[in-house]
Amino acid sequence: MAELINPNPxxxxxxxxxxxxxxxxxxxxxxxxxKMELFELIRGVRDPEHPNTLEQLKVLSLEGVxxxxxxxxxxxxxxxxxxxxxxxxIGLCVRVKLLxxxxxRYKVDLRITPxxxxxxxxxxKQLNDKERVAAALENTKLLDVVNGCLVPLP
Length: 154
Prior knowledge:
By secondary structure, this protein is α+β, with helices and mostly antiparallel strands. 32% of the residues lie in helices and 10% in strands. Helix 2 links the parallel strand 2 (72-77) and strand 3. Helix 2 packs parallel to helix 3. The two termini are 23 Å apart. The model has no long low-confidence stretch (mean pLDDT 89).
């Protein structure tokens, strides 16, 4: 087994999210997806190295999700260590989860939280380059790893 990048990460308690306001009663009117619902979609993505979710490791948080009225989504990813070699894989997992669950009208932008990774600019470029993402998803072994990260914890 390969050596872990962060062999002993901090694990944080997962908080329950409470939605404020009411739902739209009209069944024919599609409800817009809000920040909380978006976070619910990605909070269970698993870390590729540890048996924890990205929320438990504080790689993803509700505060790190931004949504604009025009359908633009921004998700901030905070690696557990500044030299994390898994940051691109983690971002790919989050992107795939959102691609599979969000309607196509949403534009997703993934970013490394400023100052949390040594290669922040390069990782951001990889995470948001459509050709690189498409090429990565053509690699069956890499896709197997991504799919494994999207399986909910028992």
